[in-house]
Design brief:
It is a single chain. By secondary structure, this protein is an alpha/beta fold. The chain has helices spanning 11-28, 44-52, 104-114; strands spanning 2-9, 34-40, 58-70, 73-82, 92-100, 120-128, 141-145, 151-152, 168-174. The protein is built from three helices and nine strands. Helix 1 packs across helix 2. The termini are close together. The chain binds inosinic acid (IMP) and magnesium ion. Inosinic acid (IMP) binds next to strand 5, helix 3 and strand 8.
Length: 175
């Protein structure tokens, strides 16, 4: 099936929003260190841009999860593909995610990280699709709320493609 892309959020809009998020987070974590946990692969572009806009001390770590399901829908069974390298005890953990969809992945991840002795665990997501929520998860920081459409770019993929787009687009299938 052929497909094409439509721009949902331009590079300028995304960059401006991330700058604001960085300012807000820096203010709210004043006097603390932030331990950023990036959920691979989708959140990697966002995490780098966000980290550059945070002015309090930051450390970073990466985790990779897989949820079984089709290309465009997670099934809620989450597996750790790559675990963190650093311990979390006493840290102010900020999980950085590309998008909260059903919420299943993040629900699982946040519970897991809380159980590892972090001082606190908060969530920052570039995008939120509230209409799709199945389990109760709310990001502490959200870049944009978007309608229920499958998006790509800025780290997010469709069948591993389009992660390198500097903007956020919607995949439209032509038929
Ligand atoms: P959830 O467990 O359903 O919330 O799924 C979250 C994960 O599914 C995200 O971290 C993304 O990796 C992926 N995902 C959900 N919606 C989209 C989308 O529109 N485009 C690309 N990936 C998505
Ligand atoms: Mg993801």
């Amino acid at each position: 099936m052929a497909e094409h892309l439509e721009v949902l959020l331009s590079e300028e809009e995304v960059d401006a929003r991330i700058r604001k998020l960085g300012e807000q987070i820096s203010k709210e974590y004043e006097g603390k260190n932030i331990h950023l946990v990036c959920v691979l692969k989708g959140a990697s572009f966002f995490m780098c841009e966000l980290a550059k806009r945070i002015t309090v001390p930051v450390s970073i770590d990466f985790m990779s999860l897989s949820s079984y399901g089709s290309d465009t829908e997670s099934a809620g069974v989450v597996k750790i593909v790559k675990d963190l390298e650093e311990p979390l005890e006493g840290k102010h953990v900020l999980v950085v995610e590309d998008i909260v969809d059903t919420g299943r992945t993040l629900k699982y991840l946040i519970e897991l990280l809380k159980g590892r002795g972090a001082a606190d665990v908060k969530l920052c997501a570039l995008l939120d699709k509230p209409d799709r929520r199945v389990v109760d998860v709310k990001a502490d920081y959200t870049g944009f709320s978007i309608p229920d459409e499958f998006v790509v770019g800025y780290g997010m993929d469709y069948a591993q493609r389009y992660r390198n787009l500097p903007y956020i687009g919607v995949v439209k299938f032509d038929n």
